[in-house]
Queue: 2 jobs
Job 1
Amino acid sequence: MAGRGGGDMKEPMNEQAVANTYGSMRAELNQIYSKITELEMEVSEHSLVMGAIQPLDPSRRCYRMIGGVLVERTIKEVLPAVQRNKEGLEMVIIRLNEALEKKKKEIAEFEAKYKIKIRKSDGEVKDDNERKEGSAQGVLVGPASTNE
């Protein structure tokens, strides 16, 4: 893609360039979804840790992994750090959700501009056929059905 003359990704000229740009936009969207899911799991782990150590004596020792090194600390030292980390993760999730909405809007505008329609893959079509009793198998449906 970098070797194209002009280099303006906002105005792809041919169908292949539109498809490549759309594919990369969808890949970015999926990466954002994946990162949000990963961070939400980390927030839930932080909550579990906080719930487990809060009722304990603050002077009790506990261990914390910092950069791959296990460090011995007290609960009164670790609990505020875990809370700060959790709050930081929640802020990142909020920013990623905003980026996700922006990317969804960008993709929707791109789809409208280039009149992109999503076709179901064979696996999804097969699943739909299994759900509907009496549906014909092996029927090929055109890209735009007007008699719905």
Note: The helical segments are 15-53, 75-114, 122-131.
Job 2
Amino acid sequence: MLLPYLLYITYFAVLLYYFTQEQSLLWNPVHFSFRRLNLACLLRAVGGVRWNSSFKSAPLLTAAPVRALIDEHISIKGRFLPPHSPITVCAQMQSDEGDLWEAFAHYNTNADGSVNLTRDHSVGGSYLGCEPMGLFWGLQPAPGSREGLRLRKKNVETPYVMLLSLLEGHVSPSERKITPLAAVTTERWYMAPDVRRTEIRQDGVVGTLFLPPGPGPFPGVLDLWGMGGGLVEYRAALFASRGYASFSLAYLGHKDLPGPLNRVNVGDAYFKSAYHILQDHRQVVADRIGIIGLSFGVYLSLRIATRVGVKPSCLVCVNGPVGSTTKLADADGRTENFENEQTHWRFDDQGRVSFKQMSLPANLCPESKVKLEDLPCPLMYIVGEDDLSASSTENANLIEQTLRAAGKSQLFTRLSYPGAGHLIEPPYTPNSRVSLWSFKPRKLYTLWGGHPAPHAAAQQDAWKKILDFMDSHLRR
């Protein structure tokens, strides 16, 4: 008489065990199938009890791969949800400075109780429509955060850790008391495993060298940023992750460089030395080196290529001028203080500054203008048509006209993106239309431009074409 009761007790014990294991098992389909098979065998062994159960799997959120480079696509799916129901997918992460960034999107589940961000459309939140990576490029500072934040990776040897969660209904993540239905964590890296990072302090040059895995030799990239100063490593780390020996170079606003911090205190010899440090490295192909510059880094890239005495194989220029926006202090390219000349600064009704007028070709420091007709190599120039920090279209036009007149039009490639702003960076990273520029002598915010969705599309397309362009000229 006790046998039926023992069978039922055994059945419930087995079912309880597998219910508690369900979440972890679903991460590994192979193990999951194996355990399912064992469960079926065990039930047959205890008599094949028939039981009509209303058990349902718990909601599940997956992200694949859970660890990826910043420019790689992530597939996000929700399962085991009520069919045709409103849900919210939320992303949250902390910046290296400790600020909370977040994005969210409203979806309606399909008939099978699933949602797939690769194919389904957001109906509200941080973005609309089918945007598989919208939770990444749509990140914004959480409500109550400090003003004027811009997301920039400071430590490339650690990832951004992103918490993705499923919430019931169409809600906002600022409603903190909501308990997630399911969650998963992903890691986003600029630096691939086995990429080597080396700080360079040589012959007065300040920078960081990134080398891809393996013995090489590798094509090289000299990486130059703008007048924000400091040493910015994340783009160079990503180039190394894509097979390039990449040298991120500081040239102002760094403690190991001559002061003051608000002007360029190094000249042509400095950039020539930096180029040679990269070129002379035993794991770099000496005659396959490109230069990429953003903003003021565009002027420096053009200047290095035309007057410093080196011969790069190609240039990539993103939203910058063909001359210095600040008066030169000497013929070697050092500048006066950036804040000294404010004639062409423009302020909006909220007191935020735009530097766009400064970089109109007619407003550039005349003696600094690059002799574009001397350009020795192919040039890709990228324009954000909503750039509020540089007159990118006008500078691109001047380059194109000058090269055509010099019989070098074949060297010029232009990419132009409506709705994109100044800061065209690696893909799936959020744009800041406005950010804090300086604290002293007063707090100043600057306008970069760019609208979220078209800017994100520009970054994705431009990055692919930058890599293709560099491959064609550095891996020939």
Note: The longest strand covers residues 284-294.
